[in-house]
Amino acid sequence: MTSPPPTSLGAEPDCSIYTPSNYGPTFADLQMYGPVQFEGTMPVIVQRRPNSLSSWEDISSNFTAALVDGVGAQASLQQSRIKVTGTGSGLSQNRFYGDYEYRIIPRTGANGLKCRGVAGAPDVASFEYRFKVAYSCSDGLLGVFDMNHDHDLNAGDLSAWMSGPADFNADGAANSTDLRNLVDAVVQYQNLPQ
Q1: How many degrees, rounded to 5, is the angle at CA 64 between CA 59 and CA 65?
Q2: Is residue 102 located within the same domain as residue 26?
Q3: Same structural domain, 23 and 114
Q4: What is the Cα–Cα distance from 37 to 43, expressed in whole angstroms?
Q5: What phi and psi values does residue 17 have, to the nearest 5 degrees?
Q6: 42 vs 103: CA distance, rounded Å
Q7: What H or E segment, with its residue span, contains residue 182?
Q8: pLDDT tens figures, 24-52
Q9: How many separate domains does the chain show?
Q10: Is 0.70 topped by the overall pTM?
């Protein structure tokens, strides 16, 4: 079982451009499949990396988490949403900065994310949620295919995919279908104005 994508990244779901003056979203709102609980302030691990060939850096200490109850039509979602928010305030508030890929995964064990209302409060099923914050709409809309992070779609992205395949269609496998999606994107959008 996996977790669906966050319902929000601190901005409207369309292309919102982040510039050095507004840096990026300050929170990610994760919707779980059912009620959850946790002890402490950080039941998930937040990691980032500048490109798909880099190692993940744990930046969990820059964030806190809180349960968010559903309201109105979503009242049945009580205690199934987690809001991961950057620590600090104002311009010094930590956030999901642009030009990074982020990964959020659940912690396990005593301070981990637990199933609420289930005997023994077991750990939630493992999930991995990835997203990228972009500084331009072309980065945001096509950035998933920019495997070498040069802000362009080109043959370099194909080479980067061969070194570290990505699952573009979210079917659980990085395979020839994903490579075909990448080739199609490069052919169709390689000359897109920045």
Answers
A1: 120
A2: yes
A3: yes
A4: 9
A5: -85, 130
A6: 14
A7: helix 176-189
A8: 788 888 888 888 999 887 999 999 988 77
A9: 2
A10: no
